[in-house]
TrEMBL record:
Localization terms from the record: Golgi apparatus
Keyword Glycoprotein: yes
Enzyme Commission number: 5.4.99.30
Catalysed reactions, as listed in the record: UDP-beta-L-arabinofuranose = UDP-beta-L-arabinopyranose
Name the UniProt record assigns to this protein: UDP-arabinopyranose mutase
Secretion signal span: 1-22
Amino acid sequence: MRTAPTLLALTLDAALLRIATLRDLSRLPDHILFDLFRRTLSAGKLTEKVLKLFLATDCEEIILLVQLLNIKQPLIPAWQPFFSRFDIIVVKDPELAADLQIPSGFNVKVYTKSDIDGLLGATSINFSGHSCRYFGYLVSRKKYVISIDDNCLPAKDPAGMTVDAVTQHMVNLKTPATPFFFNTLYDPYRKGADFVRGYPFSLREGVECMLSCGLWLHNADYDPMTHVVKRNQRNTNYVDAVMTVPLGAMFPVSGINVAFNREVLGPVMFPGLRIRKEGKHRWDTLEDIWNGLCAKVICDSLGYGVKTGLPYVMRSDAEAGKALESLKEWEGVKVMDDVLPFFESLKLSRTAVTVDDCIKELAGIVRQKLAPKNAIFSKAADAMEEWTKLWKSHGAQNA
């Protein structure tokens, strides 16, 4: 005996028949919207006009599914309120064959492989994969740079408000950091916080913050082992906090959601470490981890600060991939066993008084102490030295 359809199912069927004539879906609850979207997709009725109708609802599940399925759309409105005021640099991965779909309403400059080759000529630095963003760092002429992965969208805070990642990154960078003494109320410069009892007054002015490391919801940034074990786990924990990473503490900087003061930190924001058989997924790479460790050591040495926490972005499952196959050949675990003790014990000389001085000295120490253990560190030192040359010739000019 066949079960009679529910009233909701009949309503969705009726909406599907009229989907091309509807003008507004924003009043529907998200779970009904998502069900209607899947039915529309299955019925082959997802036209450009209908896609815009669904995207205008700002339903996170729909936007994430659009990215996961790589549905080509002319406009994703989610970032427009936050990015449309600024200059945007898009660097197309040299190994990407498909044409880029650039939304309207943005001030965008697109760089391709021919632009990279034409400007830099022969260089040992590989700007493919996740490393292509560093070319954007090189050619930007702005004081501050914000970099967010292409599979990320604006997150919503616990109150349901869309997070303005740009503004929060700028707040982090433009307010002092406190690396020399930990404040148990985290960032004392945030509204509603302050320095706690016992915090030395001589340190309350803080220091300049040079690097802001945001976080993400939904798809966690795991290594291959953890991803295989927890492939269905999603991060839903929104922690409303910003903190300065203490002096001497190392942490994994991720290129997923990061901002920095380019005028000061530019010479150290480079793609240096490439592990063998590196793939297209974050779990295959260590270039942003290495970059972040170099930046943190240099900030510590020169008396600058680094913050982590807010802002959050929403990260999709676009990197689902085959983590198990990647795991068989991934050497990142062993590499980090050598890297972390090296950076924890590293002390740069007092004669290195600029970021450029520091990165040159650091490259020499890497070549001396790490390169004999693994050839990839020798190549990393080469890349660090090459980047300083590229920065002098192409990156040091300011707006």
